[in-house]
Design brief:
Radius of gyration: 24 Å
Strand content: 5-15%
Shape: globular
Distance between the termini: 23 Å
Strand order of the largest sheet: 2-3-1-9-8-10
Structural class: alpha+beta
């Protein structure tokens, strides 16, 4: 889409700042290769890289409005910009362009900081309010677009990607946050608002940041994720789901350039592709898979595309592809994100970007419509609802002494252990006991559940399913799904659009009752019902597979020596007990258990550490501009 860097300093912007500003913007030029722009005033500097979709000729940023009263930069898309423009014209506003940034600045002029509540889209926006000497920044409700910042003693530094901070003397500090590392080993990412580096933070999704001159930035929530189940006749609910998704796909396809679609074998991308094909019958779909039995959805995607009458471009990814490209992929991810499915997204994005600048995808559907298989546990676990706590504790203790693999052990544990102590989102890699063995810096006073205790407190009166959905939206969706999707597509200068993560769609999905979402056989019940007449039956009823990636197989074979070499040569000895990781690798290869996700999580951290800590630390500061993607 686009990318930005900038500073709002307590002292005047100097020559060093402006020199480094250009270098920092070049580091993220993959986010916006079409054009660039710089704005510098006494204490503020913006640099912008643009990937153009709307008003290709006149949408250059930074954009100055009304003789310099306001200056703005904007990463993302505003899908209701046409409707907003028409409303503003009624109030006497005139527009010189069709660019969304002009609409945004006009809205700010009219509503002040409440302007963000009128936006429908994915975005990170920064507005320089000259007359009030104020910087206003906001991030979209779901966290689709990134916003990193450093609250430094000499001012505020900000960027679309945290790697840009490595190129400025004031922001080049590589101290790892030990608590974040500890959390990473459980979540496979670092939960917002923290990052793996102690001094870099993330503006939370649905929040607005206000920074007045020489004052500390203030961050306020403007959008609340809240599920409000409302019983409704089934037929009416289905019509509402169809209507809102049809509208969302339509507005997400607003562009002055063609849009493609990602297509897997699942229902989410199938729905998006179907609706998109009704708007553009010539739309092309892209699918990625693996030549490993049981780990590819290419055949299902091909069948779907044939039924819809659209072209499908397919790509297979090998273990060698993973090993060759992983350092570049981790460089693009910024922080360690140990989701193996990030890599196939990188490759299929590269293929798609050969012909397109934008693509539709199905992210977010599982979180808001209740699609993850684990959500189905709320039905059988109801038998534990009225079991007294002392009995649950006794049952849990009994389950602990049962050998792994004994039928019923997991069921008893899930029914007797409070959700708050076992559910951290859709991935759970290392537990506390395992981390204490593998992590030299382990702190027993900072268990993973303390990190999300405030989230559980927010939904303490909700049912089990809503709690799980809320935790996933606040952790897994923001820290994993949207990070890998944004960074992997942007690595190829390709914009990803996600019609399910739309404020209007969420309004509908938030009203669904538990029975609208899960039953004893499946998940996303009403979403499947809403499209059963247009999506063939086996796709409608098919359980969610996720993005199947064969690292479990590869780490026993093609990747074994590669992984062993990374572990042995890694400069992470102060953090990781390598002997424990090597033990896991050999146990995995010897079929003593599936430790692939644990091994992968450590490998990603080790590679991240080499790229961002070891290699950067070896360089002379003056040559940092030479350490970019082509050097990884």
């Amino acid at each position: 889409m686009c990318g930005f860097v900038g500073f709002y300093k307590n002292e005047a912007i100097n020559d060093y700042d402006t020199e480094k500003l250009e270098i920092m913007a070049d580091v993220i030029k993959h986010r916006g290769p079409d054009s660039s722009g710089i704005f510098v005033t006494k204490n503020l500097a913006f640099a912008f890289r643009r990937l153009s979709f709307i008003d290709l000729e006149n949408g250059t940023q930074p954009f100055t409005w009304n003789g310099g009263k306001l200056t703005g930069i904007f990463n993302g898309e505003i899908y209701n910009y046409i409707e907003l423009g028409e409303e503003l014209k009624k109030d006497g506003y005139e527009f010189k362009t069709r660019a969304e940034i002009e609409i945004i600045l006009s809205l700010y002029d009219k509503y002040g900081v409440d302007f963000v509540k009128h936006l429908r889209g994915m975005f990170c926006i920064l507005i320089w309010d000259r007359d009030n000497n104020r910087l206003v920044a906001c991030r979209d409700p779901f966290g689709i677009k990134p916003f990193y910042y450093i609250d430094h003693e000499d001012g505020l530094y900000f960027s679309s990607e945290s790697k840009a901070f490595m190129y400025h003397e004031s922001t080049y500090r590589n101290e790892i946050d030990k608590t974040s590392l500890q959390n990473y080993l459980t979540f496979q990412f670092v939960p917002e608002p923290n990052t793996i580096l102690k001094h870099i933070k993330v503006v939370p999704a649905g929040n607005i940041l206000i920074k007045d001159f020489k004052e500390k930035p203030v961050i306020k929530e403007y959008f609340e994720i809240k599920f409000k189940p409302v019983p409704m006749p089934k037929d009416e609910r289905i019509k509402e789901i169809r209507r809102v998704l049809e509208n969302s796909v339509e507005v997400h396809m607003r562009s002055d350039v063609p849009i493609a679609t990602f297509l897997s074998g699942g229902i989410d991308s199938t729905i998006v592709t179907y609706l998109a094909s009704k708007i553009d019958p010539k739309i092309k779909s892209y699918t990625v898979g693996f030549e490993v039995e049981g780990y590819s959805e290419i055949s299902q995607a091909k069948e779907t595309s044939e039924r819809l009458g659209i072209d499908n471009i397919q790509l297979n990814v090998s273990a060698k592809d993973y090993m060759d490209e992983l350092p570049k992929i981790i460089w693009h991810l910024d922080g360690p994100v140990a989701d193996p499915s990030a890599i196939p997204i990188y490759f299929i994005s590269r293929e798609c970007a050969k012909s397109y600048k934008g693509v539709l995808s199905g992210e977010g559907s599982d979180e808001i419509f209740g699609g993850y298989n684990i959500y189905g546990e709320v039905i059988p676990l109801k038998v534990f609802n009225n079991v007294p706590v002392p009995v649950k504790n006794a049952l849990s203790s009994f389950a602990n002494i049962l050998p792994d693999g004994v039928k019923g052990k997991s069921f008893i544990k899930r029914g007797c252990v409070p959700l708050e102590r076992r559910y951290v989102g859709n991935a759970f890699i290392f537990n506390e006991e395992e981390k204490s063995k593998i992590l030299r810096t382990y702190d027993k006073n900072k268990p993973y559940y303390k990190t999300i205790a405030n989230l559980y407190d927010y939904v303490k009166n909700e049912n089990r399913l809503i709690k799980m959905q809320y935790i996933d939206m606040q952790t897994w969706l923001k820290g994993d799904i949207l990070v890998k999707s944004d960074r992997m597509t942007m690595a190829q200068s390709l914009e990803l659009r996600v019609p399910f993560l739309d404020v209007e769609v969420f309004k509908v999905a938030s009203k669904l009752t538990e029975s609208d979402k899960v039953n004893s056989k499946n998940t996303k019940i009403l979403l499947r019902e809403a499209f059963k007449d247009v999506i063939y039956e086996d796709a409608v009823e098919r359980k969610k597979l996720g993005y199947p990636v064969p690292i479990r197989v590869w780490l026993k074979n093609e990747m074994y020596d590669w992984a062993k070499k990374i572990i042995k040569e890694s400069g992470t000895d102060r953090y990781i007990v390598k002997s424990e990781v090597l033990k896991l690798l050999d146990l995995h290869r010897g079929n003593k258990g599936d430790y692939s996700r644990k091994i992968w999580t450590v490998l990603v951290f080790m590679l991240w550490h080499k790229i961002f800590i070891e290699d950067y630390s070896k360089a002379e500061y003056d040559s940092y501009e030479e350490i970019a993607i082509d050097k990884v």
